[in-house]
Amino acid sequence: MNLLQEVTSDVFQDKIDQGEYIEPKDTMPEDYRKHLIRQMSQHAHSEVIGMQPEGNWITRAPSLRAKQILLAKIQDEGGHGLYLYSATETLGISRSEMIEQLHSGKAKYSSIFNYPALNWADIGAIGWLVDGAAIVNQVSLQRTSYGPYSRAMVRICKEESFHQRQGYEIMTRMMRGTKEQQQMAQDAMNRWWWPSLMMFGPHDNDSPNSNNAIKWKIKRESNDELRQKFIDKTIPQALLIGLTIPDEFYKLDEKTGHYTIGKINWDEFHNVIKGNGPCNKQRLKHHKKYHQEGAWVREAAEAYSKKQKSKLK
């Protein structure tokens, strides 16, 4: 690093340390830009891919009300993807390039969406556990140092809180239902609990990107801190409606007020990240298929936009 780069880096870090936002036209280190592109595009991809397991249940929702709520939720997630893709584009990367990185496997999305939604209880578990974990992480991101990302997260968090309540309502209703419904809810809890804990990423000591993320205030809290918040919030919710925590080692530490849990199976996490989860191939194949089939819509919208602009000249 030469003297000019050092001075620029120092000025940038001072701005971060003073709690100021970094805006698209501000000078920023290339590593900061790359980190944001990786994180924000992954976040956008996760929102869009996450529509798939739920979309499969629209026609099979148990009531008209449940169908309406699920449709609204899936629509929200599509909007979240749009906000985040748009915010990421301010860093100098195109939407088409981000999609190409997703399709090629260069860019990732949250490992949680590579698990199947087998029945209606899974839709409850996804809303309550998966979106609940997302909220814990995303509330912190409302204070992230990059302005466009921070502002996008404000609306996203409001909508995600609705998603979490929708999921918890499903689980609560099922736990008040028949023995078979209670068993379905518990089975969903058993299958989604550990993958939801993995959503926060590896333990801090094993997370290669955490140090810079904290230094640059892209993240305000570490993976383990966020995971602990989720655990402390969610275990009482589960116990309140009669669900059993699928972890024989969990317990409340009376001194700290925090719950401790058993070991997370990180081999499973890394295996899914590498593309070997139950639905990895299915999720990407589906996205590629409909991205290609929807090309004419994007082309038509672009042609219309050009036509309208030409009329203004």
Q: What's the average pLDDT?
A: 93
Strand order of the largest sheet: 1-2
- Using only C-alpha atoms, the radius of gyration works out to 21 Å
Low-confidence stretches: none
CATH topology: Ferritin
Count of discrete domains: 1
Q: Give the C-level CATH assignment.
A: Mainly Alpha
List keywords for this structure.
mainly alpha; 313 residues; two-stranded antiparallel ribbon; 13 helices; Ferritin
Please summarize what this structure is.
By secondary structure, this protein is mostly helical.
Provide structural commentary.
The protein starts with a helix and ends with a helix. The model has no long low-confidence stretch (mean pLDDT 93). The protein has 13 helices and 2 strands; from the N terminus they run H-H-H-H-H-H-H-H-H-H-E-E-H-H-H. Helices cover 68% and strands 1% of the residues. It has a two-stranded antiparallel ribbon with strand order 1-2. It is an all-alpha fold. The chain has one domain: Up-down Bundle (Ferritin), CATH 1.20.1260.10. Helix 4 runs antiparallel to helix 7 and helix 6 packs across helix 10.
